[in-house]
Specification:
The chain is of the alpha+beta class. 22% of the residues lie in helices and 21% in strands. Strands 5, 8, 9, 10, 11, 12 and 13 form a seven-stranded mixed β-sheet that branches. Strands 1-4 form a two-stranded parallel ribbon. Strands 2-3 form a two-stranded antiparallel ribbon. Strand 6 and strand 7 form a beta hairpin. The longest helix is centred in the first third of the chain and has 26 residues. It is globular, with a radius of gyration of 23 Å.
Length: 334
């Protein structure tokens, strides 16, 4: 075989290899869904040290008396060898019952209808992470990319791997006599947000929730806000029509800014299942749209109200971090 013929055969092979490599690179760099909202500059400039989750190692586990295997801060990272690590295996009964929103136990081959596709869009279930490609453990189950939690299985979470949520942060300026209220120490205007009190932990939180399989993020943001802050599921027909008209203004792209997309330090997290969210700020600068909202706590909330934002707020999961980004974006008091 002469040199020309050899090169002709080798060239397509090289091209094919490069195409496959390029396609894989594109796949692994496109985990997040397409942007639907402008991105907050504060979010892009967050170059602090990697988070070490704290609430995800807390005991007892929510809704139970189950205690995690203690994990000290210096043992959180998977890169740290720890032969003595013996995490507690716990899945809540409500998850074991097999509701529609929960995965089966993939360790039980008799319950498997199909092999799950982790790190991918698995049918209508998004098993991709905002953090990129996550590892699988010796049982071929997802491994929490932020490290050990002292617990394996799913706890209260339905999905193995990332459980996606959406958090709508609806804000306005605090006003008196038609003008913005200025804090006497910082000299900056005070920002308020709509908060719900969670029934499970009694903590104040952003009125967000889980993204249903196949659901658009924009739909989740509106649905969860309506259900938790306005009790939309129990509104009569005319009130629902009025609410939808209000939402067209409040949740418009002109009022929106994506604050965060990533891992949430949530007390429900385990080594094999964890919370991720997109937090989007919907700001009513004039305050005339959100002022017409008839706040009424839904079934999952104990209370709902406008809260002043400052550094002393003790909120659920990573919600304080999200609000700090909103404050920096709006140049408000903290």
């Amino acid at each position: 075989m002469d040199q020309t013929m050899w090169l002709c055969m080798l060239y397509p092979t090289i091209l094919c290899f490069l195409w496959i490599r390029h396609s894989t690179s594109l796949l692994q760099s496109s985990w997040c869904p397409p942007e639907r909202y402008p991105v907050c500059p504060v979010m892009l400039c967050d170059t602090g040290s990697p988070m070490i989750h704290i609430k995800a190692r807390s005991s007892p586990y929510p809704g139970s008396q189950v205690k995690r295997f203690p994990v000290h801060c210096d043992k959180v990272r998977w890169s740290r060898e720890w032969a003595e690590y013996d995490p507690v295996d716990y899945t809540a009964e409500v998850v074991k019952a097999g509701p529609e929103w929960a995965d089966p136990d993939f360790r039980d081959s008799s319950r498997l209808r199909h092999v799950p596709r982790f790190n991918a869009l698995d049918g209508v279930i998004n098993r991709r992470s905002y953090l990129g490609v996550y590892d699988l453990d010796e049982d071929n189950l997802p491994r929490n990319p932020m490290g050990r939690t002292g617990m394996i299985s799913r706890g209260l979470l339905g999905k193995w791997g990332p459980n996606h949520a959406a958090d709508p942060i609806v804000t306005r300026w605090k006003r008196e006599g038609g003008g913005k209220v200025i804090h006497n120490l910082s000299g900056k205007p005070i920002l308020q947000f709509i908060a719900i009190e969670r029934k499970d932990s009694k903590q104040w939180a952003i009125p967000g929730g889980m993204v249903d399989a196949g659901e658009q993020l924009s739909t989740t943001l509106k649905r969860e806000f309506g259900e938790e802050a306005l009790n939309s599921l129990k509104l009569p027909g005319p009130e629902k029509v009025r609410m939808r008209k209000q939402f067209r203004t409040i949740f418009s792209k002109e009022n929106a800014m994506k604050i965060y997309a990533g891992y949430v330090d949530d007390p429900r997290n385990t080594d094999n299942a964890w919370m991720e969210t997109q937090a989007v700020n919907f700001h009513d600068d004039a305050g005339d749209s959100v002022g017409d909202l008839n706040l009424h706590a839904g079934d999952d909330a104990g209370d709902v109200q406008w809260l002043d934002i400052d550094q002393n707020l003790q909120l659920y999961a990573s919600h304080t971090r999200f609000l700090k980004s909103v404050v920096e974006l709006r140049d408000a008091h903290w």
